[in-house]
Amino acid sequence: MIQLDGLTKSFGAQRVLDGLSLDVPDGRNTVVIGYSGSGKSVTLKCIVGLIEPDGGRVLVDGGVVGEMSREELAELRGRIGYVFQFAALFDSMTVAENIALGLARRGHDRSTIARRIEESLAVVELPGTEGRYPAELSGGMRKRVGIARAIALKPRYILYDEPTSGLDPVTSAVMDQLMVRTRDLGVTGLVVTHDMRSAFRVGDRIAMLHEGRIRQVGTRAEIQASDDPVVRQFIEGRPGQMAAAAPRRAPG
Amino acid sequence: MTHDSRLTTYSPPRDGFITHIGRRSLETFRAVADVPTWSPLLVGQMRRLGVDSVPIALFIAVFTGIVLSLLSSYIFTGAVPLYFVGALVGKTVMMELGPVLTGMALAGRVGASIAAELGTMKVTEQVDALETLAYDRNAYLVVPRVLAATLMFPVVTAFAMAVGVTSGWITAVNLLDLSTPEFFKGLRMFYQFKDIWFGLVKSASFGAAVALMGCLQGLDSKSGAQGVGQSTTRAVVLGCEAILVLDAFWALVLL
Fold first, then answer.
1. What gap in Å lies between CA B251 and CA B255, rounded to an integer?
2. Contact at CB, B135 and A48, closer than 8 angstroms
């Protein structure tokens, strides 16, 4: 289980996270929604130790991320897959090499690596792309390779950073199916997005991040029925009163 | 326990410049222990940073030899026997101009290339991706480049020395009133083995400095094309400055 406990993070004078607390239960997809620049990606990076919060704690399976040694952090990252917003594939490597990199780090032999590459590409429905370079793939395909790279490691958790941003509706739906399918394989998902259609398709639990903390968290139905004006405005995509709801822009 | 070594994603350097460079150099040195990560990448980087840099180094060496030969003839005429042209060309190319000019050229080529590559990886989150796959960024990205440059700069410089002296000799024989035996008489007259290893030791330190500056500036890139461009420029400028400082340092220590 991932637990965020009172996270705070500022960049200069901008306070992006302001006491964020959230539990991510095992075996389900938790979706964090919020305005662009509200600190959703920062939250994910705090979980894997890429960003150190100014205050609060991140606990993964009971271990405090901020107190881990290098070795413990490397082991933790072996349990967490990360799908980046723009896939972050290594552009000098083929699809197969991208997927193999993390597997090689874990000491798998060649036959296991080859099998895992084949399996993970089959899950994301991209068989036969092993030898292609990221530049030869569409945006949607790159994101699916990003998922394949994550699931090939057989992680316990996968963190998805804006998985449907910049994709057409059909490709977005494919991505959503993949996230549901991955959850059905037993992987706990934490998805950050501002795409409400995707959030309702994927999320078992949905949390709204607003002004650096969780404004409301609940099931899909609870969020859909929310009477919180900020949540309602966001899920309905209504303009107006943006000043009151203005996000604190975070880098990235 | 602090996470400073891996927390550069959004955190600009908070230390002073020297402290920052020192801290990052220390992290790089510590990452050398992660041999399984950097060793498979070393040969590729040696080829890329070293072998591929040979043409530009030789191009510079040819013209350095020509100019030195003509310049020394101009200075010596009527005052010093002309065979001293060989001595001046040999000493200057091996001890100073070979290593420094090659280093400067490679600071442009290698430093810029490393900074642009790592800067692009940084702003496209490839460096973060590497870390989420449990790789140490220093072991995977920095150590192989710094080691490759440290090993290959002396090799490239050795070729440049040979070509520089050769072009100086050909110039002296063809354009000056000097025979081959006279040129080599001058060359041998003041030659010491130290002339060569002094230049090669210097060039190894230049390689380490240029690659380290390229890596550190690349990994500290800010978002966007402008950020990568600024890092690349800084890497070249700092690499050249480091070469001049190290050049003076070695002159003080070894001469």
1. 5
2. no
- Note the pLDDT of residue B13: 53
A10 burial level (CB within 10 Å; 0-12, 13-18, 19+)? middle
**pTM given for the model:** 0.86
Q: Give the count of alpha carbons within 13 A of A112, CB side only.
A: 12
Element (H, E) at B101: helix B98-106
Mark yes or no for CB contact A88/B223 under 8 Å: no
Domains of chain A, by residue range, sit at 14-92+156-245
User: What would the pLDDT profile of A68-109 be if each residue is shown by its tens digit?
Assistant: 988 899 889 989 999 999 889 999 999 999 999 999 998 899
**A6 interface with B at CB cutoff 8 Å:** no
Domain positions in chain B are 36-254
Residues on B contacting A at a C-beta cutoff of 8 Å: 1-3, 5-7, 9-11, 121, 124-126, 128-136, 223
> Interface pTM (ipTM) of the complex?
0.87
Mean pLDDT of A207-231: 92
How close B130 gets to chain A, by Cα (Å)? 8
Shortest distance between the Cα of B90 and any Cα of chain A, in A, equals 42
Provide the CATH topology of domain A14-92+156-245.
Answer: Rossmann fold (3.40.50)
Q: pLDDT > 90: what percent of chain B?
A: 74
